[in-house]
Amino acid sequence: MIKYILLACFLPVMCFGQSVSSVSGTVADGESVTISGSSFGTKPTAAPVAWDNLEDGTCNTTATVGTWSSTTLLEINSDNNRATNSSYNAYHDFDGNDGAEAYAVFRGGSDSPSWYVSYWFMLGPNWDWGTIHDSLGNIKILRMWTTGSDNENFKVNTQGTYDVLWNDEYCDPSMLSSSNGNSYMGWTNFENEMDDGEWHHIQFVYSESSGIGVADGTAEFYFDGDLIAYDYGIITDCGASGADSRPMIVGFYDSHAQTNNDGANDFYIDDVYIDNSWARVEIGDNATYANCTHREIQIPTAWSATSITIDANQGSFATDDAAYLFVVDADGNVSDGYAVTIGASESPIITAPTNLTATKVE
């Protein structure tokens, strides 16, 4: 994928203070794996706010880990699965029969200053993107909104066939939408890259401003492993309360549903993960995190500065695939990739002692 116009003049910080020294266990669905190393930092609650691979065969507020505050119009679905070892996903048909608005999204968590969001989606072959002012022409694919009364409202959405936009029009005038505004990502080929019949991965890293009106909020948007856009100087707090926000839209929201008359438009979503910490574990298809085109989130169950335990999630990696494990700390620093084989039993590397001196015993 071609790199697009970015919204800041510097790249994300990738510090390699943390180091993975060994991995013990089998990196396969549901297996417990222990990661040993150093400088992993802290994660007070090891488990994410919510994680759902839908494999319990339900689509409701009870997630695989944690809970959703809402799953809106989504229903459980058993075809078009993302991986051979998967039996279910969630589904909605944007057919214009949902009234004025159509939400096919997960929501979860309470207001917090930091968030990491990951989900996979697929569009059916009958999907028909609209123009800016009709149905499927203004799809919100991520939205952060406070549960309070302030107007904080950071969103990522399509703009017809033109571009993808992100902004917080209430808080940051520099991100107001306009044809010349810097809120447009320059992602003019999004319709082709969000091609139907293929599963795609969205990742979103977000932090609130440190105070009301302070331009130091963070937003990073990844599509299929590619960093499409980022900004480390946004204003997200502008109300009297300075309230934080939570993921209100994780999925697709069609705000112009009432004008949709083109029939069925199938949307599928799976492996949805949200957490109020950037600290996480992922596996990818390249030894360098930034070069991965395929990443799968792992589910932590215990976390300390020197040891992390995860419930492994191989996602659409196949057994015997080569992969690399990454630890990301709460500040977003990413470790070097640690080589693992999907489905194989990993054992700690034992290094022979050095500088030993033999002593003859009489």
Number of domains: 2
Strand content: 35-45%
| Structural class based on helices, strands and sheet pairing | mainly beta
Average pLDDT level: 88
Radius of gyration: 21 Å
Tell me the overall shape: globular
Largest sheet: 9 strands, antiparallel
Query: From N to C, what is the helix and strand string?
Result: EEEEEEEEEEEHEEEEEEEEEEEE
If you consult CATH, what is the topology of the largest domain? Jelly Rolls
Q: Say how many strands there are.
A: 23
CATH class of the largest domain: Mainly Beta
Give the % helix.
Answer: under 10%
Describe this structure in words.
With 362 residues, this protein is mostly beta strands. It has 2 domains: 114 residues, Immunoglobulin-like (Sandwich), CATH 2.60.40.10; 228 residues, Jelly Rolls (Sandwich). Helix content is 1%, strand content 38%. The strands form 4 sheets. Strands 3, 4, 5, 6, 8, 12, 13, 14 and 16 form a 9-stranded antiparallel β-sheet that branches. Strands 19-20-2-1-23 form a 5-stranded antiparallel β-sheet, with no helix packed on it. Strands 7-15-9-10-11 form a 5-stranded antiparallel β-sheet, with no helix packed on it. The longest helix has 4 residues. The chain is globular, with a radius of gyration of 21 Å.
